[in-house]
């Protein structure tokens, strides 16, 4: 199939030293039902990951909890030895006893285990970006981050981020070690973390929306459809293009198991929304 090469001009400097193409890839869908166990069609999943990199994507998001472990090992099997400049971000801090449960676990011993297993699963000596998947309300954040600080000092982690946090929590963590990314739920239809996004813009921190493809409530559908028609685009592409225009520190990680859908997502990087289109969608 013809491949879309994403624009290399739309980049963000993560942590001051990692040049990231702002349209990346989220690997969460490449796992079993409920993000648990092995992906059903592993050969296809490997093809998708290889096509991701061939298309110019240099930022892939995964997590220890996806599988758990299966997703990280799949990425290594598909892409190791890694292409120069490819950044693989992973996360730790969840227990996954079964497909239904996501239990935050910020105990230092569990965080240490997550980090060591991610290093082995991904076949790397250093994790480019390690993110705390959730803050455990039962463990002081400083205790949770202590093994992360140790891993940074040991060269096992280069940069650190957080997920699903408020501004106060970011500032609390930043007293322990530098925070370069925040991964919160955010999309055209759900902007509950608007204040966090604005804070990350101000501080030069990357903002990585998870579930970026939700296109919003029914009231937005007509607006999106009209704008999509003008751009000869899909509603999903417009939802991604809106995020890229919303703030220059947003890194997108849409996920898919489909090569065709991957191609569609990547084309969003070439859609330039007018200010009028952007404002119409933002209301």
From TrEMBL:
Pfam families associated with the record: Aldo_ket_red
A Gene Ontology term for the protein's cellular component: cytoplasm
GO molecular function, one term: oxidoreductase activity
NADP-dependent oxidoreductase domain boundaries: 22-281
Keywords: Oxidoreductase
InterPro entries: AKR, Aldo-Keto_reductase, NAD(P)_OxRdtase_dom_sf, NADP_OxRdtase_dom
Species for this entry: Chitinophaga arvensicola
Transmembrane domains' residue ranges: none
Gene3D superfamilies: NADP-dependent oxidoreductase domain
Full protein name: Predicted oxidoreductase
